[in-house]
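Our example pasted here:


***
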Amino acid sequence: MELFPDLPLESWRDTKERLHRFLQVVGKIRLAGSPRRNHWWNVPFHLTGQGITTRPTGPLPGGDAFCVDFDFVAHRLAVRTLSGRSASFPLTGRSVADFQRDTLAALAALGVDVRPEHPYPYDLPDAKRPFAEDGEHRAYDPAAVTRYWQVLSQVGLLLEEYAAGFSGKTSPVHHFWHTFDIAVTRFSGREVPPADGADPVTREAYSQEVISAGFWFGDETVPAPAFYSYTAPEPADLSTRRLRPDAARWSPARGSHIALLMYADARAAADPWSTVLDFLDSAYHQGADLADWNPARECPGGITDPRLRERGGAAGTSGTPGTSGTPGT
């Protein structure tokens, strides 16, 4: 299994467009059926050993709950309930309209009465066309979809390691269906007045100062896979600060700037994993320094135990990767 296997956007663009809409169909069901969390943390997908999941959603009348899983090894969608019932169907051979119909039918067969409030694409070129009328997007390359999940999983593990270095408020590592990226976000704890004209999604997402890090698979704006980081609100002169490695750059993005390290450049590095972590760390520290974040919230290695930090994080514990992490065992 190659670390960060090649996945050029052009090699699976049509499949990605279809899959993106599949994720939005199910994501909007999760949005309709789950309690709202700050910054929309209830909405994104989480990774599993074979794909992605909504996580358990409910409760339903009578105490039941349901979960919707994409299996990107067998290429099926599965709906399961807490009571042990299930329904599934193949992801192949279906348009977006077919997929929405079959997903809602699977839910109904299990007695789940949860429907998306606005069954239209979000922030996509066909945002005015309901999913039920989309017979256009039909491409589905199983090999490309499996590779997408493998890349997603490897990046997810890297972001978990990056997330461990901050003890303040931090989001889960999660996969957003509206932007088709995987991200983790750190918060300074300071509130931010909403921007004039901001929509409800943006107001909730950026109600506090954040530095976000993540990865996307390419789109019309950046037509290639890339790791990224941004600080919001963006402090003055951020885009003049140096990033590591030299291949990284600041790019204009909707009136501000985003730090980019192209996936191809990371793959070409002698140590891709460490190169990406160093990139994310450099982007974070440039933003945190200019925005005057509290450096005490940094915890290298995920350690906040003061005695272990004084000793360099090694003594008195077997809490290394692959162990229980319990001190003194």
User: Anything to note?
Assistant: The radius of gyration is 21 Å. Residues 9-133 form one domain. The chain has a mean pLDDT of 93.
